[in-house]
Amino acid sequence: TAPGPRSYTTLRDEAVKLFNSLQQLESERDPVPLMQGVLQTCLDLPPLVDEIYCQLVKQTTEPPAPGGQGDLHYWQLLTCMSCTFLPSPPVLRFLRFHLDRRVPSRFPGSEMAKYACFIREALGKTKGRECVPSLEEILVLMRRQEMICTVHCPGAPACSVAISSHTTAEEVARELVSRLGLSQSPNLFALYEQSRRREQPVRSATLLADVLTRFE
């Protein structure tokens, strides 16, 4: 299940806890729940977003084992951060320098360089999330891939749509209208989310990744 409400102490104490989580991440066999926990703390306590970005830049600048499991775990969390939060302008400039200069020049063609390229592109699209990435989304982001979203259409077979962390409901609805040959229809189309308790339209600007997290 997705993380529920948490109780927090002071920002300083929570920053120390996050630092300890990053240290643990390096040797974690299954890093996904730990990554989601870090993301949830940042969502609940926005002042810590810059702190985590700075710590991740530091951890990926002079890794003891470049390209090793621990190093890649840091890059994977940095990838998830970039698809969820934007840092403040000064930290963003610092991060872009790290992604544009340090990594590609030192490790060209490496996994780290590929993550750096992915993160750089993601930062240009990220506007903020209502929910942290689901466990499935984190796994997909760790592989720098897209998620497959299944949409059930009345009177037509279910459609599978590839989405990213930045895909909106309007973009998916537009693609489905095109696939189903309804582009000339005078009707309006929208996506709906349905649970056991309710059915409601998904706002056009809503990120589909947030909807999937709520279902998780």
From TrEMBL:
GO cellular component, as recorded: cytoskeleton
GO biological process: signal transduction
Residues of the Ras-associating domain: 145-216
Domain FERM: 147-216
Pfam families referenced in this protein's UniProt entry, alphabetically: MyTH4, RA_2
Domain MyTH4 stretches: 1-142
Signal peptide: none
PANTHER family, alphabetized: AGAP003327-PA (PTHR46049), PLECKSTRIN HOMOLOGY DOMAIN-CONTAINING FAMILY H MEMBER 3 (PTHR46049:SF5)
Name recorded for this polypeptide: MYO10 protein
Phylogenetic placement of the source organism: Eukaryota, Metazoa, Chordata, Craniata, Vertebrata
